Amino acid sequence: ANLFADDINLWKKSTLNQILQRGELQVCLEPGYMPFEMKDKKGRIIGYDVDMAKRMAKDMGVKLNLLPTAWDGIIAALVTGKCDIIMSGMTITQQRNLKINFADPYVVVGQTILMKKGLPAKTAKDLDKPEYTIVTKLGVTGEIATKKFFKNAKIVTFETEADAAAEVLNGKADAFVYDQPYNILFMSDKGKGKLVHLDAPLTYEPLGWAIRKGDPDFLNWLNNFLRQVKEDKVVGFYDNLNQKWLRD
Ligand code: ARG
Fold first, then answer.
1. Which terminal CB of the chain, N or C, has fewer other CB atoms within 10 Å?
2. 45: closest CA among 68, 74, 75?
3. Closest ligand 1 atom to 144 CA
4. Does the beta carbon of 183 sit less than 6 angstroms from any atom of ligand 1?
5. Using one digit for the tens of pLDDT, what is the confidence trace for 220-243?
Protein backbone atom coordinates (compact mmCIF):
# COMPACT_ATOMS: atom_id res chain seq x y z
CA ALA A 1 0.00 0.00 0.00
CA ASN A 2 1.01 3.58 -0.53
CA LEU A 3 1.49 4.87 3.01
CA PHE A 4 1.73 8.46 1.89
CA ALA A 5 -1.67 8.23 0.17
CA ASP A 6 -3.12 6.82 3.38
CA ASP A 7 -1.84 9.86 5.30
CA ILE A 8 -3.44 12.22 2.77
CA ASN A 9 -6.75 10.38 3.11
CA LEU A 10 -6.57 10.61 6.89
CA TRP A 11 -6.05 14.35 6.66
CA LYS A 12 -8.89 14.76 4.14
CA LYS A 13 -11.22 13.02 6.57
CA SER A 14 -9.92 14.96 9.58
CA THR A 15 -12.46 17.15 11.32
CA LEU A 16 -9.82 19.88 11.30
CA ASN A 17 -9.69 19.83 7.51
CA GLN A 18 -13.50 19.91 7.36
CA ILE A 19 -13.57 22.93 9.67
CA LEU A 20 -11.09 24.77 7.44
CA GLN A 21 -13.02 23.86 4.26
CA ARG A 22 -16.29 24.97 5.83
CA GLY A 23 -14.77 28.11 7.35
CA GLU A 24 -16.60 27.45 10.60
CA LEU A 25 -15.93 25.71 13.90
CA GLN A 26 -19.05 24.04 15.32
CA VAL A 27 -19.02 23.64 19.09
CA CYS A 28 -21.52 21.62 21.14
CA LEU A 29 -22.11 22.92 24.65
CA GLU A 30 -24.87 22.96 27.23
CA PRO A 31 -25.42 26.37 28.83
CA GLY A 32 -26.23 26.29 32.55
CA TYR A 33 -22.86 25.19 33.91
CA MET A 34 -21.50 28.45 35.23
CA PRO A 35 -18.90 29.87 34.81
CA PHE A 36 -18.07 27.71 31.79
CA GLU A 37 -21.22 28.23 29.73
CA MET A 38 -24.28 30.19 30.75
CA LYS A 39 -26.69 32.75 29.34
CA ASP A 40 -26.39 36.45 30.12
CA LYS A 41 -29.42 38.71 30.64
CA LYS A 42 -29.78 39.15 26.89
CA GLY A 43 -29.74 35.38 26.32
CA ARG A 44 -26.26 35.29 24.80
CA ILE A 45 -24.05 32.34 25.73
CA ILE A 46 -21.00 33.47 27.65
CA GLY A 47 -18.34 31.87 29.84
CA TYR A 48 -14.91 30.32 30.11
CA ASP A 49 -15.49 27.75 27.36
CA VAL A 50 -16.99 30.39 25.07
CA ASP A 51 -13.93 32.64 25.37
CA MET A 52 -11.71 29.63 24.71
CA ALA A 53 -13.79 28.60 21.68
CA LYS A 54 -13.53 32.15 20.29
CA ARG A 55 -9.76 32.07 20.61
CA MET A 56 -9.67 28.62 18.99
CA ALA A 57 -11.74 29.74 15.99
CA LYS A 58 -9.61 32.85 15.66
CA ASP A 59 -6.40 30.82 15.58
CA MET A 60 -7.96 28.52 12.96
CA GLY A 61 -9.03 31.54 10.95
CA VAL A 62 -12.68 30.45 10.87
CA LYS A 63 -16.05 31.61 12.23
CA LEU A 64 -17.45 30.19 15.45
CA ASN A 65 -20.85 28.53 15.71
CA LEU A 66 -22.03 27.62 19.22
CA LEU A 67 -24.61 24.82 19.25
CA PRO A 68 -26.54 24.54 22.51
CA THR A 69 -27.09 20.82 23.13
CA ALA A 70 -28.81 18.97 25.99
CA TRP A 71 -26.30 17.16 28.19
CA ASP A 72 -27.90 13.74 27.82
CA GLY A 73 -27.44 13.86 24.04
CA ILE A 74 -24.18 15.78 23.81
CA ILE A 75 -21.89 12.80 23.16
CA ALA A 76 -24.32 11.40 20.57
CA ALA A 77 -24.38 14.82 18.88
CA LEU A 78 -20.60 14.74 18.56
CA VAL A 79 -20.40 11.15 17.41
CA THR A 80 -23.07 11.68 14.73
CA GLY A 81 -21.32 14.78 13.40
CA LYS A 82 -23.69 17.51 14.60
CA CYS A 83 -20.64 19.40 15.84
CA ASP A 84 -16.84 19.21 15.61
CA ILE A 85 -16.04 19.34 19.30
CA ILE A 86 -17.63 19.41 22.75
CA MET A 87 -16.40 22.35 24.85
CA SER A 88 -18.71 22.09 27.81
CA GLY A 89 -16.77 21.54 31.01
CA MET A 90 -16.75 17.83 30.33
CA THR A 91 -14.80 15.69 32.77
CA ILE A 92 -12.42 13.26 31.10
CA THR A 93 -13.67 9.95 32.45
CA GLN A 94 -12.37 6.55 31.47
CA GLN A 95 -15.91 5.45 30.53
CA ARG A 96 -16.52 8.44 28.21
CA ASN A 97 -13.05 8.01 26.78
CA LEU A 98 -14.02 4.57 25.48
CA LYS A 99 -16.42 6.33 23.06
CA ILE A 100 -14.72 9.65 22.34
CA ASN A 101 -11.27 11.20 22.48
CA PHE A 102 -10.19 14.06 24.70
CA ALA A 103 -7.54 16.71 24.31
CA ASP A 104 -5.33 17.29 27.34
CA PRO A 105 -7.06 18.83 30.39
CA TYR A 106 -7.55 22.61 30.41
CA VAL A 107 -8.77 22.86 34.02
CA VAL A 108 -9.06 20.46 36.95
CA VAL A 109 -12.13 20.45 39.20
CA GLY A 110 -13.76 18.15 41.75
CA GLN A 111 -17.18 17.49 43.21
CA THR A 112 -18.17 19.48 46.30
CA ILE A 113 -21.32 19.80 48.39
CA LEU A 114 -23.73 22.65 48.97
CA MET A 115 -25.57 21.87 52.19
CA LYS A 116 -28.60 23.40 53.85
CA LYS A 117 -27.51 25.72 56.65
CA GLY A 118 -27.95 24.48 60.19
CA LEU A 119 -27.41 20.77 59.59
CA PRO A 120 -24.88 19.17 61.95
CA ALA A 121 -23.00 17.43 59.09
CA LYS A 122 -19.43 18.42 58.29
CA THR A 123 -18.55 15.82 55.63
CA ALA A 124 -20.22 13.74 52.95
CA LYS A 125 -20.11 10.82 55.37
CA ASP A 126 -22.15 12.72 57.97
CA LEU A 127 -24.80 13.36 55.31
CA ASP A 128 -25.08 9.73 54.28
CA LYS A 129 -28.12 8.94 56.40
CA PRO A 130 -31.62 7.81 55.37
CA GLU A 131 -33.17 11.05 56.71
CA TYR A 132 -31.22 13.16 54.20
CA THR A 133 -32.01 13.84 50.55
CA ILE A 134 -29.09 14.53 48.19
CA VAL A 135 -29.72 16.10 44.78
CA THR A 136 -27.59 16.36 41.64
CA LYS A 137 -27.86 16.59 37.86
CA LEU A 138 -28.63 13.60 35.66
CA GLY A 139 -25.79 12.09 33.65
CA VAL A 140 -22.92 14.10 35.07
CA THR A 141 -19.95 13.09 37.18
CA GLY A 142 -21.82 14.62 40.12
CA GLU A 143 -24.35 11.83 39.78
CA ILE A 144 -21.61 9.19 39.73
CA ALA A 145 -19.99 10.71 42.83
CA THR A 146 -23.34 10.98 44.60
CA LYS A 147 -24.07 7.29 44.01
CA LYS A 148 -20.59 6.39 45.21
CA PHE A 149 -20.54 8.48 48.38
CA PHE A 150 -24.19 8.20 49.41
CA LYS A 151 -25.32 4.63 49.93
CA ASN A 152 -27.88 5.36 52.67
CA ALA A 153 -29.23 8.83 51.87
CA LYS A 154 -32.06 9.36 49.37
CA ILE A 155 -30.80 10.51 45.96
CA VAL A 156 -32.86 12.60 43.53
CA THR A 157 -31.57 13.72 40.11
CA PHE A 158 -32.68 16.67 37.97
CA GLU A 159 -32.38 17.55 34.30
CA THR A 160 -30.53 20.80 35.05
CA GLU A 161 -28.06 21.88 37.73
CA ALA A 162 -30.20 24.97 38.44
CA ASP A 163 -33.26 22.84 39.27
CA ALA A 164 -31.22 20.56 41.51
CA ALA A 165 -29.56 23.41 43.42
CA ALA A 166 -32.95 25.12 43.85
CA GLU A 167 -34.21 22.09 45.80
CA VAL A 168 -31.72 22.76 48.57
CA LEU A 169 -32.57 26.46 48.60
CA ASN A 170 -36.30 25.79 48.95
CA GLY A 171 -35.68 23.16 51.63
CA LYS A 172 -36.89 20.08 49.74
CA ALA A 173 -33.39 18.60 49.72
CA ASP A 174 -30.52 18.71 52.20
CA ALA A 175 -27.51 18.80 49.93
CA PHE A 176 -26.48 19.31 46.31
CA VAL A 177 -23.43 17.66 44.74
CA TYR A 178 -21.78 19.32 41.75
CA ASP A 179 -18.54 20.70 40.28
CA GLN A 180 -16.69 23.04 42.64
CA PRO A 181 -16.56 26.14 40.37
CA TYR A 182 -20.36 26.06 39.99
CA ASN A 183 -20.82 25.69 43.73
CA ILE A 184 -18.45 28.56 44.53
CA LEU A 185 -20.49 30.88 42.29
CA PHE A 186 -23.82 29.61 43.60
CA MET A 187 -22.60 30.21 47.16
CA SER A 188 -21.55 33.78 46.45
CA ASP A 189 -24.95 34.55 44.95
CA LYS A 190 -28.20 32.66 45.76
CA GLY A 191 -26.66 30.49 48.46
CA LYS A 192 -25.35 33.35 50.56
CA GLY A 193 -26.53 32.98 54.17
CA LYS A 194 -28.68 29.98 53.25
CA LEU A 195 -26.21 27.24 52.37
CA VAL A 196 -22.88 25.91 53.59
CA HIS A 197 -20.19 24.88 51.10
CA LEU A 198 -18.41 21.65 52.05
CA ASP A 199 -15.63 22.46 49.63
CA ALA A 200 -13.18 19.60 50.12
CA PRO A 201 -13.26 17.92 46.67
CA LEU A 202 -14.70 14.39 46.68
CA THR A 203 -13.20 13.60 43.26
CA TYR A 204 -10.35 14.46 40.89
CA GLU A 205 -11.75 15.68 37.57
CA PRO A 206 -9.71 16.99 34.65
CA LEU A 207 -11.92 18.82 32.13
CA GLY A 208 -11.16 18.37 28.42
CA TRP A 209 -12.51 19.08 24.94
CA ALA A 210 -14.00 16.00 23.32
CA ILE A 211 -13.67 15.00 19.66
CA ARG A 212 -14.51 11.92 17.61
CA LYS A 213 -12.11 9.00 17.69
CA GLY A 214 -9.64 8.28 14.91
CA ASP A 215 -8.57 11.86 14.24
CA PRO A 216 -4.88 12.36 15.14
CA ASP A 217 -4.56 15.57 13.07
CA PHE A 218 -7.28 17.36 15.01
CA LEU A 219 -6.05 16.06 18.35
CA ASN A 220 -2.51 17.21 17.57
CA TRP A 221 -3.72 20.71 16.67
CA LEU A 222 -5.83 20.97 19.84
CA ASN A 223 -3.06 19.90 22.20
CA ASN A 224 -0.57 22.27 20.64
CA PHE A 225 -3.13 25.08 20.73
CA LEU A 226 -3.77 24.31 24.39
CA ARG A 227 -0.07 24.37 25.27
CA GLN A 228 0.33 27.69 23.50
CA VAL A 229 -2.56 29.45 25.26
CA LYS A 230 -1.62 27.92 28.62
CA GLU A 231 2.11 28.53 28.62
CA ASP A 232 2.41 31.79 26.70
CA LYS A 233 2.84 34.18 29.62
CA VAL A 234 3.72 36.99 27.21
CA VAL A 235 0.16 37.10 25.92
CA GLY A 236 -1.26 35.74 29.20
CA PHE A 237 -4.51 34.50 27.65
CA TYR A 238 -4.98 31.53 30.00
CA ASP A 239 -4.16 33.41 33.18
CA ASN A 240 -6.54 36.19 32.15
CA LEU A 241 -9.25 33.64 31.46
CA ASN A 242 -8.84 32.08 34.90
CA GLN A 243 -8.83 35.50 36.52
CA LYS A 244 -11.96 36.52 34.65
CA TRP A 245 -14.08 33.43 35.30
CA LEU A 246 -12.62 31.33 38.11
CA ARG A 247 -11.44 33.79 40.73
CA ASP A 248 -13.44 33.28 43.93
N1 ARG B 1 -17.97 18.12 34.75
C2 ARG B 1 -19.23 17.48 34.83
C3 ARG B 1 -19.30 16.30 33.89
O4 ARG B 1 -18.54 16.21 32.99
C5 ARG B 1 -20.39 18.43 34.56
C6 ARG B 1 -20.33 19.15 33.24
C7 ARG B 1 -21.64 19.78 32.88
N8 ARG B 1 -21.50 20.67 31.77
C9 ARG B 1 -22.49 21.40 31.25
N10 ARG B 1 -22.21 22.24 30.31
N11 ARG B 1 -23.70 21.32 31.74
O12 ARG B 1 -20.13 15.44 34.03
1. N
2. 68
3. 12
4. no
5. 999 999 999 999 999 999 999 999
